[in-house]
Amino acid sequence: MGKTVMVIDDSSSFRTVVALALKRVGYDVVEASDGQDATRKLGGQAIDLLVCDVNMPGMDGLTFVRQLRTLPRHGRTPVVMLTTETSEAKKAEGRAAGANAWITKPFQPSKLVELVNSFFKE
Q1: Is residue 92 part of a domain?
Q2: What is the 3-state composition of the chain as percent helix, strand, coil, each rounded to the nearest 5?
Q3: How many Å apart are CA 9 and CA 56, to the nearest integer?
Q4: What is the CATH number of the domain that holds 98?
Q5: How would you write the pLDDT of the chain (122 residues) with one tens digit per residue?
Q6: Which domain, by its residues, includes 30?
């Protein structure tokens, strides 16, 4: 497959759950603990899709997505927000920031994998 997904969440156990689900179906996974960590790790790697939490210390997910969209290399990289946030206002803010999809925690790993796969259908 050769696709790399970055998982951004301040919970290491949550990152592990997401990473395992994605690795099981053949994705390479890079983990980041918040938006600042993700920004540092984006520099040297080709990332094909990002799975990002909203509420994180340091740089939150929506701020990170807004910054990501200003980078020439990642202006169109798909972003899936995976968060406990359920309000329509937050979802609208996510869309405005540039998020492509929104999944609410708790979630089914199989549904996340299905969604991620949908971005790579030819």
Answers
A1: yes
A2: 45, 20, 40
A3: 7
A4: 3.40.50.2300
A5: 589 999 999 999 999 999 999 999 999 999 999 999 999 999 877 899 999 999 999 899 999 999 999 998 898 999 999 999 999 999 999 999 999 999 999 999 999 999 999 999 86
A6: 4-114
CA distances from 103 to 42, 51, 106, 122 (A): 23, 10, 9, 23
Helix ranges, the chain (H):
12-24, 35-42, 61-68, 88-97, 109-118
Q: How far apart are CA 92 and CA 14, in angstroms?
A: 24
Q: Can you tell me the distance from the alpha carbon of 26 to that of 4, in angstroms, rounded to the nearest whole number?
A: 9
Query: Would you say residue 98 lies in a domain?
Result: yes
* Separation of alpha carbons 35 and 32, rounded Å: 8
Give pTM, 2 decimals: 0.95
